[in-house]
Structure formats: C-alpha cells, structure tokens
Amino acid sequence: MYFTLLIVVILTAIVLVAAAMGIARAISPRSYNPQKGEAYECGIPTRGKSWMQFKVGYYLFAILFLMFDVETIFLFPWAVVVQDLGIYGLVSVIFFLVILALGLAYAWKKGALEWK
C-alpha cells in the first residue's frame, strides 16, 4: 500500500514539474540576441577574456564563510525556544558551539583563513 502511494506521489511530482516547465517554455518570450551570451558584470562591458582562473583560496574562504554563516542561522531557532528546552537545550547548543569552534580552530591551524 505504501509503495503504491510512493509511486503515485513520485509520478505526480514528475508530471507537475514537467507540465510547469513545458508551459513556461511555451509561453515565455524568445529573443535570440548575441549580446545575451556575453558575460555581464555590473553593467560594465568586459575587457579581455571573461573566463579566467581564480586562486583556490577564494573558494576556500567562501566555503568557510558559508559554512559558519549557515551554522549561525541554526542558532536563531534555538534562541526562540531556549526557555522551553531547559538544560538539555543548553547542553546541546554548547556541544554544537564546541564542534563549531573546533572546526574554526582546524581551519585556522591549516592556514585556510590567511589571505595571501
């Protein structure tokens, strides 16, 4: 019974997504302009090659920022219900912050936060 229901839900999702994409493609305006294929950066026309390599440090710094930013977002729901959770909630968030601090210390020790 559950397997049949799962198949129906998956097929319904596939049909709805395909229908939405088909309708969007059918009614969307089309404009084939070579200017659409150019790289766009803040309204300034590009000079030289648009495709160039960046240092891996930029990616690493961005990933670390996103990681700590997302983990900070997890603290907001906890702050809303902190009174209802009691001591268990406090211990859990302290454990979470300790793991976060260990991750930061590891990244710092590896030199991931140094801007060279």
SSE layout and pairing:
Blueprint: H1 2-27, H2 56-73, H3 75-80, H4 82-109
Give a description of the structure.
- The chain has 116 residues and is mainly alpha-helical.
- Helices cover 67% and strands 0% of the residues.
- The protein has helices at 2-27, 56-73, 75-80, 82-109.
- It is flat.
- It starts with a helix and ends in a 7-residue tail after the last helix.
Quick overview of this protein structure:
It is built from 4 helices and no strands.
Descriptive key words:
0% strand, flat, 4 helices, 67% helix, 116 residues, mainly alpha
Please report the number of helical segments. Answer: 4
Mean pLDDT over the residues? 83
Report the biggest beta sheet as strand number plus sense, adding barrel if it closes.
none
Tell me the quaternary state.
single chain
Helical percent range?
Answer: 55-70%
Euclidean distance between termini CA atoms? 60 Å
> What's the overall geometry?
flat
The total count of strands amounts to 0
Proportion of residues in β-strands: under 5%
Structural class by sheet pairing and helices: mainly alpha
What pattern of helices and strands is seen along the backbone?
HHHH
Using only CA atoms, what is the Rg?
A: 24 Å
| Low-pLDDT residue spans | none
